[in-house]
Design goal:
Elements lengths: L10 H11 L5 H58 L6 H26 L4 H8 L6 H21 L1 H11 L8 H24 L8 H37 L13 E10 L6 E9 L2 E8 L3 E9 L3 E6 L4 E6 L2 E6 L5 H21 L10 E2 L35 E3 L7 H24 L5 H30 L7 E3 L8
Antiparallel strand pairs: 1-2, 1-7, 2-3, 3-4, 4-8, 5-6, 6-7, 9-10
Helix pairs in contact: 1-2, 2-3, 2-7, 3-4, 3-5, 4-8, 5-6, 5-7, 5-8, 7-8, 10-11
Pfam families: PH (PF00169), RhoGEF (PF00621)
GO molecular function: guanyl-nucleotide exchange factor activity
InterPro entries: DBL_dom_sf, DH_dom, FYVE_RhoGEF_PH, PH-like_dom_sf, PH_domain
Length: 491
């Protein structure tokens, strides 16, 4: 026997099929009968959607009452006794108990509203939706609480016995981890339940648009919780890796994630041998390590991704990573060279794109080795900038006036201006040396500069004489262009 809400084939459908197949009625009579059948179908569909909507609202209430009872069990039989009996003294458990009490009050308000006014579900969720973000506090500590309880069960027999005894009680009859995860899953569950109510709500219903707005708020809270859980998982991965590293380096940083890690073979510079090394690919850095994570890792080099480039060699089985003056020729014994190549290339591309849109750390980052590894950035606190020393190759280029071309004007009164322009390079230098001459210092450097000043004055006089001689001998009607002759200062 089928339910009246979901019959296999309705009576009106069978009648319509018979009327269409057999020419039993006139055209006018057949149209009247089919119209009446359509009205019955519309009424039936409306009744069916209304029943399904009520059923979805009732499911929200039923599951919320069950969830409320689970919160009571978690606080009454586990968290409170652990703190009262001092079985485990940790501040995070105190915070956990306070979060459970707060979320219990929010859930209680939802149950009360659904019992008293189930048809006004949009208004109820609209009032409580801002409080759903409180679940993010619990979700952020969830992984740490789970690890804390698991470690203490392994190391503390009395604590393990207490948990086992509480789990088998008739009032509980469930595992502690299953109770802890219900709080993380509750907001996504709200999202599914409200979406089901909206699916069975007609477009012209008064609560259709308010339900849409509530669903948007719930989805925002769910995304926020999921992002915090994912962020906490990534942080935990970095912390686990941090425990394996013996070098003084802090991997944990907001926004930093672990992309890939594993062993690669590094080819020696001579190319006749290869050494097994461990590489850690982060979203902003590549770590070159020695050792294994099972024992210990020693970070030998830190490579910023924005300065790295990757080149494939020998049909993509061998690849080269270059980071300024550091070069590594690598391959994988496990045959996953292509995976490493793709992961590193994608990480470099994504990191450079992020740097183009966000103001990240200074682009002056360079590969770090040995004693400089402690400069590896681990937070977003800006450091005091230091003036970089000029490298040996970065030399100052003296002004070479022999490459300067001057143009003689048609008017004779422009000659003085032309000579002033020619004297500009000398004036700046003569003023500098004049200050040196006026000083009372008698060191060797000052005497050397004074000698250079005298030599430069003599060359300047020769240049002026040569220019005037060239001006007299040149034919002004054939060419108006005159090249200035000024020897530059030699180092």
């Amino acid at each position: 026997m089928y339910s009246p809400l979901s019959p296999q084939t309705s009576l009106s459908s069978e009648l319509r099929k018979i009327i269409n197949e057999r020419n039993m009625l006139s055209t006018r009579s057949r149209m009247k009968v089919l119209h009446a059948l359509n009205e019955d179908n519309e009424k039936y569909a409306e009744i069916r959607e209304k029943a399904l909507r009520s059923q979805a609202i009732q499911e929200i209430l039923t599951t919320e009452v069950t969830y409320l009872r689970q919160l009571e069990i978690l606080a009454e039989f586990f968290i409170q006794p652990i703190l009262e009996q001092n079985l485990l003294n940790h501040p995070i458990l105190v915070t956990l108990l306070e979060n459970i009490k707060t979320l219990y009050n929010v859930s209680g308000e939802l149950v009360t509203g659904l019992k008293h006014n189930p048809d006004d579900i949009a208004e109820i969720f609209h009032k409580l939706a801002p409080f759903f973000k409180l679940y993010s506090v619990y979700a952020y500590d969830y992984t740490q609480v789970l690890n804390l309880l698991q470690i203490n069960q392994e190391t503390n027999p009395a604590f393990k016995k207490f948990i086992c005894d509480q789990e088998i009680r008739p009032e509980v009859d469930r595992k502690l981890p299953s109770l802890l995860i219900t709080l993380v899953q509750r907001v996504p569950r709200y999202q599914l339940l409200v979406k089901e109510v909206l699916r069975h709500t007609p477009y012209n219903h008064k609560e259709y648009r308010p339900l849409q707005a509530c669903l948007v708020e719930i989805e925002k809270s769910a995304k926020h919780i999921n992002s915090l859980v994912a962020q906490n998982e990534e942080t935990q991965k970095l912390l686990n890796l941090q425990q394996c590293i013996t070098t003084s380096i802090n991997l944990v940083k907001p926004g930093r994630i672990l992309i890939k890690q594993g062993s690669l073979m590094r080819v020696s510079r001579r190319g006749n041998t290869a050494y097994k090394r461990y590489f850690v690919l982060l979203n902003d850095t590549l770590l070159y390590c020695k050792g294994e994570p099972e024992t210990s890792l020693n970070v030998s080099c830190v490579l910023p991704l924005n300065k790295c480039s990757l080149t494939c060699v020998l049909s993509k089985k061998l690849f080269r990573i270059t980071c300024l003056h550091e070069t590594f020729l690598l391959y994988s014994e496990q045959g996953d060279s292509n995976e490493w190549i793709q992961s590193i290339q994608n990480a470099i591309k994504k990191y450079i794109e992020c740097r183009q849109t966000l103001r990240k750390e200074s682009s002056s980052r360079k590969p770090l080795r040995h004693n400089n590894i402690n400069e590896f950035p681990s937070d977003d606190i800006p450091k005091r900038s230091r003036k970089r020393k000029r490298s040996i190759e970065d030399k100052q280029v003296p002004l070479d006036s022999s490459n300067i071309i001057y143009f003689k004007k048609d008017k004779t009164d422009e000659d003085d201006i032309q000579q002033e322009n020619m004297c500009l390079p000398f004036c700046s230098k003569s003023k500098k040396f004049k200050r040196i001459e006026d000083s009372d210092t008698d060191d060797v450097e000052t005497q050397t500069k004074s000698a250079k000043l005298k030599l430069y004055k003599n060359k300047y006089k020769q240049s002026i004489s040569a220019y005037r001689h060239l001006e007299k001998t040149s034919n002004s009607s054939d060419s108006n262009e005159v090249n200035g002759i000024f020897p530059g200062k030699k180092n």
